[in-house]
Amino acid sequence: MKQIPAVAIVGNSGAGKTTLLERLIPALKQKGVRVGVVKHDAHRFDIDHPGKDSHRLTAAGADTMVITSASMLAMVKRHVASPPIEELLARYFTDMDLVLVEGFRGSSLPKIEVHRKEFRRALICRGERNDPSLAAVASDEPLDLDVPVLDLNDPEAIAEFIASLVYGIKGWGGERDSKANIEEKDRDVD
């Protein structure tokens, strides 16, 4: 089975994980990368809306409900516990070149931690716990760490780092070059 390349973006609440992802996705898409995203929510969320047919079907007791159109689909699936990230990747992202994961800080995925100087909070992966899967920190201030510190305000450089981390690609030259490199890497893994 093909291993789905994934990198977790972690950090304290309010540090800017989603904002970084919003900036990383276009930077990766410009390189021809098919990007998937998984967002972990530690709280209960509801993606459906009362009054809509899809909500009515779920409220009626459907364990899985899919709504689809010509351009997209969405699934609401009930479960007892949040599935492990590895299961989600294997089940739903086999057609992606890369999956960016927001959260799942307890996973073994390579991680980039988002840090902002205004928060003055200890790093999650280098605080009480020294997470060996921390690959880098994206920060808006210099830090003295045992992993690279990336400029939080340079999504292209962070995308470059992710390509190097996941695919061993350095110096992406453009969409055609990067896509060819990714496909070549996939052939090497298979």
Explained architecture:
This protein is α/β, with parallel strands linked by helices and 190 residues long. It has one domain (6-41, 83-189): P-loop containing nucleotide triphosphate hydrolases (Rossmann fold, 3-Layer(aba) Sandwich). It is 29% helix and 21% strand. The protein contains five helices and eight strands. It has helices spanning 17-29, 53-59, 85-92, 155-167, 175-189, and strands spanning 6-11, 35-39, 64-68, 73-77, 98-102, 111-115, 134-139, 149-151. Helix 1 (17-29) crosses helix 4 (155-167). The longest helix is centred in the C-terminal third of the chain and has 15 residues, at 175-189. Residues 173-182 have low confidence and may be disordered.
* Mean pLDDT over all positions: 85
How would you characterize the largest beta sheet? Answer: 6 strands, parallel
Helix amount, in percent?
A: 25-40%
What fold name stands as the CATH topology? Rossmann fold
> Which strand order does the major sheet show?
2-5-1-6-7-8
CATH homology group: P-loop containing nucleotide triphosphate hydrolases
Based on CA inertia axes, which overall geometry fits? globular
CA-CA gap between termini: 8 Å
- The CATH class assignment is Alpha Beta
Order of helices and strands: EHEHEEHEEEEHH
Q: If you compute it from the alpha carbons, what radius of gyration comes out, rounded to the nearest whole angstrom?
A: 18 Å
Helical segment tally? Answer: 5
Total E-strand runs:
8
Strand percent estimate: 15-25%
| Low-confidence regions | 173-182
Counting helices, strands and paired strands, the structural category is alpha/beta
So, CATH architecture? 3-Layer(aba) Sandwich
Number of domains as seen in the coordinates: 1
